[in-house]
Design a protein that fits this description.
This protein is mainly alpha-helical and 284 residues long.
C-alpha cells in the first residue's frame, strides 16, 4: 500500500515542483539581468542582455558607481538607513497603543477602527501620493525630511496595526489584570508587561517596513525632490539618466548597490517574518 501511494504521489509532486521551478526561473530573470549587467560594457548590455563574456567581465563599473561625483552611494546609504530607523521607531510607537486598544476593546467601534486602518492596505500608494503632496505643500512640509518621514510612517500604519492587533488578541488578558492588581495603569501595563512579549511580531514589522522604506523610489523622488538636496539610495539611479541618453554602465551598478543591502537583510531576517506571523497565529 505504501509503495502504491508513493508511485501515485511522485508524478504529481514532480509536476508541482517543475511548475514552481519554472515560475521561479521566470521571476529571477530580471534579477539575473540586473546582476550581470553591472559588470558589462554598454554595448553588451544592449546587444546581449542575457549573456556575459568572461573577457569583458569587470568590476570597474561597480567601483565607478561607488566613487561617482554625481551620486555619493555611501552618503545615500546613511540617509536611507536613518529614514528606515526613524520610520520604524515612529510607526511602532504609534501603532502599538492603537493596536492594544483595538485588541482589548469589545465594542463595535473597535472593530470599525481596525477595518478603517486595514482598508489602507487596499489603496495603492500612488493613488494617495498626489493628495499627500498637496497637503504637505499646505503645511510647508514638501521637500523636507519631516514631511517625508510623516508620509512613510503613515504608510506603514495599516499593516503594522493589523499584525499587532492580531497578535495582541492571542495574548491572555490575565497579564493586564495582574498588572492592574499591582497598581499599574493601562499605559504602564502595556509598555511594561505587554510590549516586551511582542518581540516576534515587532521583528516581523521591522523587517517588512525596513525593506519597504529602503526600496521606495517614487515617494522620496516626489516628496523630497531634487531641490532638497537629499537623496536616498534608490533615487540615485537618476544620476545616470540623461535627457537624451542613459548610461547603463552607471544605472545597473547603482541599482545593484541599492538593492544589495535589502536582499542581504531579508535573507538573514526572513525567519523573523515567518516566526512572527506563526507566533501570532498559534500563541495562546
Amino acid at each position: 500500500m505504501s509503495a502504491a501511494r508513493t508511485r501515485a504521489w511522485l508524478p504529481g509532486s514532480v509536476l508541482k515542483w517543475a511548475i514552481l521551478a519554472a515560475i521561479a526561473l521566470v521571476m529571477l530573470i530580471p534579477m539575473y539581468i540586473l546582476v550581470i549587467s553591472a559588470f558589462k560594457p554598454q554595448a553588451e548590455i544592449i546587444g546581449q542582455p542575457l549573456l556575459i563574456d568572461p573577457a569583458t567581465f569587470t568590476i570597474e563599473y561597480l567601483q565607478r558607481a561607488l566613487t561617482s561625483e554625481k551620486f555619493n552611494v555611501v552618503r545615500a546609504y546613511g540617509v536611507t538607513l536613518s529614514f528606515v530607523l526613524l520610520v520604524n521607531a515612529f510607526g511602532i510607537a504609534l501603532a502599538s497603543p492603537v493596536a492594544y486598544v483595538i485588541a482589548r476593546g469589545r465594542k463595535k467601534w473597535h472593530m470599525g477602527l481596525l477595518l478603517l486602518f486595514v482598508s489602507g492596505l487596499f489603496i495603492p500608494g500612488q493613488v494617495t501620493l498626489i493628495p499627500v503632496v498637496f497637503v504637505l505643500r499646505m503645511l510647508g512640509l514638501i521637500n523636507t525630511v519631516p514631511g517625508f518621514i510623516l508620509f512613510e510612517t503613515a504608510a506603514t500604519l495599516p499593516v503594522t496595526i493589523f499584525l499587532f492587533s492580531a497578535y495582541l488578541r492571542t495574548v491572555p488578558r490575565d497579564i493586564d489584570e495582574a498588572a492592574a492588581l499591582d497598581g499599574a495603569g493601562q499605559i504602564r501595563a502595556f509598555w511594561a508587561c505587554i510590549f516586551p512579549i511582542m518581540k516576534p511580531v515587532v521583528a516581523t514589522i521591522v523587517v517588512l517596513n525596513s525593506i519597504s522604506v529602503w526600496n521606495d523610489f517614487v515617494s522620496p523622488q516626489i516628496i523630497l525632490g531634487p531641490s532638497s538636496g537629499i537623496y536616498t539610495v534608490t533615487t540615485g539611479v537618476y544620476a545616470a539618466v540623461g535627457q537624451y541618453s542613459t548610461d547603463y554602465t552607471v544605472v545597473f551598478p547603482t541599482l545593484l548597490l541599492a538593492i544589495l543591502p535589502a536582499v542581504i537583510f531579508f535573507v538573514f531576517m526572513q525567519r523573523h517574518i515567518i516566526g512572527g506571523l506563526v507566533a501570532g497565529a498559534t500563541k495562546g
